[in-house]
Description:
- The structure holds 2 protein chains of 2 kinds.
- Helix content of chain A is 74%, strand content 1%.
- Chain A has helices at residues 2-25, 29-50, 57-90, 107-111, 116-146, 154-166, 169-179, 186-193, 210-236, 240-248, 253-264, 266-281, 285-291, 305-315, 319-348; strands at 93-94, 102-103.
- Helices cover 49% and strands 13% of the residues of chain B.
- Chain B has helices spanning 2-46, 48-72, 94-105, 121-129, 144-152, 160-166, 202-208, 219-229, 271-282, 289-295, 299-304, 316-326, 332-335, 370-381, 383-391, 401-408, 417-421, 438-453, 459-475; strands at residues 80-86, 109-115, 138-141, 189-201, 239-242, 308-314, 338-341, 353-363, 427-430.
- In chain B, strands 1, 2, 3, 4, 5, 6, 7, 8 and 9 form a 9-stranded mixed beta sheet that branches.
- The chains are: A mainly alpha, B alpha/beta.
- At the A-B interface, α3 and α14 of A face α1, α4, α5, α10 and α18 of B.
Amino acid sequence: MDEKKAAQIKKLETESAALMQKIREESDIKKKQKLIAEREKKQRKLTAIRNNRILSREAKRDLVAYSFIAPNFIGFAVFTLIPIVFAFVLAFMNWDGSNEITFVGFDNFMKLPSDTFFVAALKNTMIYVVGTVPLTMIASLALAIVLNQKIIARGLFRTVAFFPYVASLVAITAVWSMIFHPSKGPINYLLLTVFGVPQENLPKWFSGSLVLVTLILFSVWKYMGYYMVIYLAGLQGISAELYEAGSLDGANTWQKFKYITWPQLRSTTFFVVVMLTINCFKVYDIAVMLAGGSDGKLSTSATVLVYYIYQNAFNYWDLGYSSAIAMVLFLIVLAVTLVQFRYEKKLEA
Amino acid sequence: MKKKVLSVLLSATMLTGLLAGCGSDGGAQTSENTADNTQTQTDAAADTNTDAAAETKEDETQTDAAATDANAGDAAGEAVTLKWAIWDKDTTPYWNALKEAYEAANPNVTLEMVDLGSADYMTVLATELSGSGSDFDVVTIKDVPGYATLVSKNTLEPLDSYISAAGIDLSQYGGVDKQVTVDGSLYELPFRNDFWVVFYNKDIFDAAGVDYPTNDMTFEEYDALARQVADPTFGSQIYGTHYHTWRSAVQLFGVLDGQHSILDGEYDFFKPYYEMVLNQENDQICRNYADLSAEGLHYSAAFSSGDVAMMNMGSWYISTLISSLANGEYDSSLCGNWGLVKYPHADGVEAGSTLGTITGLAVTSVSANKDAAFAFVEWVSGAEGAKVMAETGNFPALMNDEVAGIIAGLEGFPTDEASKEALSVSNLYLEVPYAENVSQINDILDTYHKSIMNQEVTIDEGIASMNEEVGKVLGQ
């Protein structure tokens, strides 16, 4: 035992000496630092062996640190990391949850373009995102600017604007279904009586091509309060001196907005747009509640990607195919977010 | 280096954590079950009155039961607990009735019911049975698409050998067993069988001075009758018919001729029925689909509000109507005077052909007590189970004159002869017969049914899409 230990010590000593020699000869400062770090490691190991300790003091310190993050990380790994990695793998497999998993390569992805329901879901999701993101951003910015002024009952109005976000989705979709009811709803009643739209041409808000418009309107209304709060925080971070200086230079309201508010809010806008985009791609609950009818099933005019993922996974038990669709959704969101980050960086430079 | 070792260590801890998690999960489940079990026991103890009633019933069936017991042989004696998946325990009276009757006849068996809820029962059940760790012995099969899923996941036990060993005559189920046979094997035995009839409101017909519908109507006669009795006057509107938003309520008129099925892949035979219903909708003979779907109106609310003259619906609605009228939930001045007739039929097709939907019991492939589980399945789907079902106002799969008599004799069942006669079915076609890809076919037909009924597409376009998409699924 001791002999072995002595041999180990000797080996480490010679290695460390050789490293020392190398360090002296090395001229490149970065490489030199690396070698020094390596030698230090060897030295630490050496002291650990000499002092009859299994773990060096540093290793012990590291272990304590890891044990602090372990509870959180284990939860994250079990419920998030492992399932995500598993989903990536499953996209190339064929599995129904019970029988054996078989590898199918890119078959799941090859099926996608000819799948009418996937194409419809992709198209609808895209339209929804393109419609919802800019509208919500504009609406929430406008609300924030108005409610940042010194107006009467400002707190009340802020609460009112935030209310749809707090209210239960199920309850407010029920209310929307009543308001937009194709034959008894007040909206269509107004169109009929005030605007003279003939009864047979009254819009059916929950079917056909209009259903996406209804979905977009609903999400803008529901989520603008939340993003308004973020914009309000951003607005309050803008120094009043800038506006004062602007006034002295004779800037009008529009110029103040264009040259002070908008550039100062850039990082807020970036955050809002990224969060909105990601959230919009995940749309599922709103579509099912508003357009799902009594059985919660979406027809091709309203189907969205997440709904189709769910359907494939838990109705048809084609877990591989549904993972492949999830992968497509992931890649789209990743690509869009990367483009946004790059654009933001370009503006910063 | 050290970091690598540590990360390996960490992931090892994570994995053990994962496994430990699974283990303790199982533990929690069993303790939950025992809690559930004691609950049912106290329930049973509290209900001494019903117990006594059940016992008198028991005496009548004792001789039959003794016979089956003798057949089952070794089933008696050893104590067995069977875990049984069901839905809506509190609102569905027959689960407890079946449990009590079976436990009384087989004292060694304890049934442990696990309520998975009705809304997404088959999805939850499929998830429960996925992978290992499930300990269900008997599962209730709610619909055929879900059945197809469970069979393809190899979670159900083929019952053929048990059926032949027990000497069960499948012809007693009137051929529905053939519609759920998978590659020559049967994985469930039906115990409940609902079929579609036309409910009508006699008061509306009386007020309009129109004759009641009959048990022998062609679709033309049915359509004419609906138009005769309907009154589109705003404010006091009377609808001649009502079609619930399910595709079965409209599309499946087409399969009654026995020559077509939803598994065909060619759906041009739906066309005349879509035309009939959409024309009725446009002439305000029935409520329009877009409205129904937006407000999510339930068929029971539609019929009980007293402005619907005729409604095609499953026979399960009979027991709802009877009990809701009895406890005052429905206003009997609006819908208390109701009747039943058989489904209308196409020209040249025998009257009494209708759609059906079966509920079955299956034995899981992981069950440790397959023989005891099958003995229970056999009992429920057999004559004794049928009697219990009929006494709670439900239609057993095993329909005979005695059972029909029990239902027609229920308090609150219409007293006219035509309603009693409407309970006899000549041909029963399942709403969804078995096929491997039936879930997908079902969803495709649902999707385009929605599009057609919302008038997003024309009938021809919708049917063409059905043909194309189902063709793809069948071609796989």
